[in-house]
Amino acid sequence: MDADQLRAARTALRDSAPLVHCLTNTVVQTLTANVLLAVGAAPAMVDAPEEAGEFAAVASAVLVNVGTVHARTAEAMRIAARAAGEVGTPWVLDPVAVGGLRFRTDLAGELVALRPTVVRGNASEVLALAGAGSGGRGVDSTATADDALAAAEELATRTGGVVAVSGEVDVVTDGTRTVRIGGGSVLLTRTTGAGCALGALVAAYVAATGDALGGAVAAHAHVALAAEIAADLADGPGTFAAQWLDALDALDGDALGEADVRTS
To answer: How many Cα atoms within 13 Å fall on the side-chain side of residue 94?
Structure first.
């Protein structure tokens, strides 16, 4: 993915203002909504089973994040994923903390069978989802993105989609092509919900570009570059979160074209 494609992706997101239907965890809803608004997308937090399918069918993209899942929201996630698949709406699965807890791990397995457009998680989550590991320590990964590359490639081939693995260097693959995105800041790991918000941003970029691999790469690059800007201005994790939102908003196509993106 070259600089021109990254610039075009940023322009497409601003121009299309995709509506992202977020079935996400209660810890991160506000940050997720603010991140989407900052980049030019529109958030909606509709997680009732009675509404999830109807809304997923009209949204530009859907995010399914199992972070604080319970029986009612799990049913809404199943309904939304099926509805998205039926009408061709791109949807992103974020398998938060799968592997260590049976309920969410079983649910994530069901959702994978519904063929998400993108799976986005840390290395331990991707390894567990692919059946190649037991998960990390809650939301913390105990493996690197490259440790999970083979599992990510297998999972992408199985779903027919893309798998994005977050780490010190992010890895995005469709099972054949692999892209690495460098940059970012360690302060992202000290900001509650940064990874979950990334999942929503992946959904927005995929909707805007119509390209699962390119959209996922652009989202990761956008987050990494904004984090670098924010880290230079912040005094610590508290001010970093605010600076990061501002940087996500300010970052334009020319800046995104300078991202550390390497294809193999």
So the answer is: 29
- Residue 87 contacts residue 117 (beta carbons within 8 Å): no
Whether pLDDT at 55 is above 90: yes
Place of tokens 């929503």: 200
Q: Cβ(65)–Cβ(94) under 8 Å?
A: yes
Which runs of consecutive H residues, i.e. helices, occur in the chain? 3-16, 29-39, 49-58, 71-87, 102-113, 123-129, 149-159, 194-209, 212-233, 237-250, 253-256
Q: Annotate 199-220 with DSSP letters as a single string.
A: HHHHHHHHHHHS-HHHHHHHHH
The pTM assigned to this predicted structure is 0.96
CB-CB neighbours of 236 under 10 Å: 9
Sequence-distant (6+) residues with CB within 8 A of 90 are 61, 62, 84, 117, 118, 203, 206, 207, 212
Q: Check residue 210 and give left, alpha or beta (phi > 0: left; psi -120 to 50: alpha).
A: left
β pairing state of 118-122 and 91-94: parallel
Note whether 67 and 94 are within 8 A (CB).
yes
Number of neighbouring beta carbons within 10 Å of residue 199 = 31
pLDDT 10s digits, 58-95 = 999 999 999 999 999 999 999 999 999 999 999 999 99
Dist CA 252 CA 244 (whole Å): 14
What strand order describes the sheet that includes 178-181?
Answer: 42-44, 19-23, 61-65, 91-94, 118-122, 162-166, 170-173, 178-181, 261-263
Element (H, E) at 119: strand 118-122
Q: What is the DSSP letter of 176?
A: S
pLDDT digits (tens, 9 = 90+) for 134-176: 555 555 556 889 999 999 999 999 999 999 999 999 999 999 9
Neighbours of 182 (CB within 10 A): 14
